[in-house]
C-alpha cells in the first residue's frame, strides 16, 4: 500500500519499559490488521525496531469527545442516530469475530469530517495516546465501565462494550456524561445505582458473589426509569427504550450490537444500510449525511 503524501497517525510503544516482550501489543496489532471495516480505524502497518513498536494508523481529524465539546448541550438527534448506528456496526463486526474493544469511550471513537465514526484504541492501553483535556485517564475510563467490571467480575463478554455504548448514547443526547464518578470505583457504582437501582440476587443472579459487592459501601437504591433521570430521552422516538436496552446492570440482559442495529429506534433509516459491504461507509447511501449541529450554547446565561 502506497502511503506517500498521506497523513497518518503514529502510535509508539517503548519496548524496554515493558515487562517482558510486548507479545500482547503484537498480538493486538495483528488482530487489528485483520479487522477491515469502515467503522474501525485502519492499521496500515507495524514498524518494529529493537526499542520501539510503532503502529501506523489512518489519520482521522477528531474524536467524539472533542466533537461533543465543540457542540455542547447535546447533538442533533439525527446525527446521534448516525453515530450510534456506526458504533454498533463496528462493534457488531468485532463481536462476530470474538474481538472485544474493552475501552469504549468518546475519546476512542474517531470522527471524520464527513461524519464517519471509527473505533480506535482496541485495548492498546500501553500505547501513548493524546491525553484527554481535563480528567485523568483512569477516571474518565471509569465513567464508561460496566457495573460487572467495577464489581470485579472477570468474565468478559461482548456485553462489556455494550454498556459503554449506552453511556455514550445518553451523553450524545444530553451533552453531559451519563455517570460521571469523581473519585473511585465505589463512587462510580454509586452514580449508576442511584439511577438504575442497587442490584440484588433477584435482579442479577450471582451479583452478591462478585468480589467488589459490599452492601455497606454501596447503599440501597430503588430502580427508576432512565427517562426520569434523563428526560431528553423522551424527546426521541424509542430513545428511552434504546438506552434502557444498553444500560442493563446484569450483563446477560444487555442487548447485543447486532440486535441493537435492528431496534425500532433505527426504523427511519434506509434499509440499504443493512446491505452495505463491511468496507463501505454509511455515507455512500443516498440521503445519509451529517446535519449541522444546533448552536445551543448561544443565548444561555451562565
TrEMBL record:
User: Protein kinase domain spans which residues?
Assistant: 1-266
GO molecular function per UniProt: ATP binding; cyclin-dependent protein serine/threonine kinase activity; heme binding
**Pfam families attached to this UniProt entry:** Pkinase
Q: Keywords, A to Z?
A: ATP-binding, Kinase, Nucleotide-binding, Serine/threonine-protein kinase, Transferase
Any GO CC annotation of this UniProt entry: nucleus
Superkingdom of origin organism: Eukaryota
Q: Which family does it belong to?
A: Belongs to the protein kinase superfamily. CMGC Ser/Thr protein kinase family. CDC2/CDKX subfamily.
Question: What is the name listed in the Swiss-Prot or TrEMBL entry for this protein?
Answer: Protein kinase domain-containing protein
Amino acid at each position: 500500500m502506497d502511503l506517500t503524501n498521506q497523513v497518518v497517525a503514529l502510535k509508539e510503544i517503548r519496548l524496554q519499559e515493558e515487562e517482558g516482550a510486548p507479545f500482547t501489543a503484537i498480538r493486538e496489532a495483528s488482530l487489528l490488521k485483520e479487522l477491515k471495516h469502515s467503522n474501525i480505524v485502519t492499521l496500515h502497518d507495524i514498524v518494529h525496531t529493537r526499542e520501539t513498536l510503532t503502529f501506523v494508523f489512518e489519520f482521522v481529524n477528531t474524536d467524539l469527545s472533542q466533537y461533543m465539546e465543540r457542540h455542547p448541550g447535546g447533538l442533533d438527534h439525527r446525527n446521534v442516530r448516525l453515530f450510534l448506528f456506526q458504533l454498533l456496526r463496528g462493534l457488531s463486526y468485532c463481536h462476530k469475530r470474538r474481538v472485544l474493544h474493552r475501552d469504549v469511550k468518546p475519546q476512542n471513537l474517531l470522527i471524520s469530517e464527513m461524519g464517519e465514526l471509527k473505533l480506535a484504541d482496541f485495548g492498546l492501553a500501553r500505547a501513548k495516546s493524546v491525553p484527554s483535556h481535563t480528567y485523568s485517564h483512569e477516571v474518565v475510563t471509569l465513567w464508561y465501565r460496566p457495573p460487572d467490571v467495577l464489581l470485579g467480575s472477570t468474565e468478559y463478554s461482548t456485553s462489556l462494550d455494550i454498556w459503554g455504548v449506552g453511556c455514550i448514547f445518553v451523553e450524545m443526547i444530553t451533552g453531559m456524561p451519563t455517570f460521571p464518578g469523581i473519585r473511585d470505583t465505589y463512587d462510580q457504582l454509586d452514580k449508576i445505582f442511584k439511577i438504575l437501582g442497587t442490584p440484588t440476587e433477584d435482579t442479577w443472579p450471582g451479583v452478591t458473589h462478585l468480589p467488589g459487592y459490599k452492601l455497606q459501601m454501596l447503599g440501597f437504591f430503588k430502580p427508576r426509569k432512565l427517562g426520569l433521570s434523563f428526560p431528553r430521552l423522551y424527546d426521541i422516538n424509542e430513545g428511552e427504550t434504546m438506552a434502557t436496552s444498553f444500560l442493563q446492570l446484569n450483563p446477560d440482559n444487555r442487548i447485543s450490537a447486532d440486535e441493537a442495529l435492528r431496534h425500532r429506534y433505527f426504523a427511519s433509516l434506509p434499509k440499504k444500510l443493512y446491505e452495505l459491504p463491511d468496507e463501505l461507509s454509511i455515507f455512500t447511501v443516498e440521503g445519509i449525511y451529517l446535519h449541522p449541529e444546533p448552536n445551543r450554547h448561544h443565548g444561555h446565561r451562565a
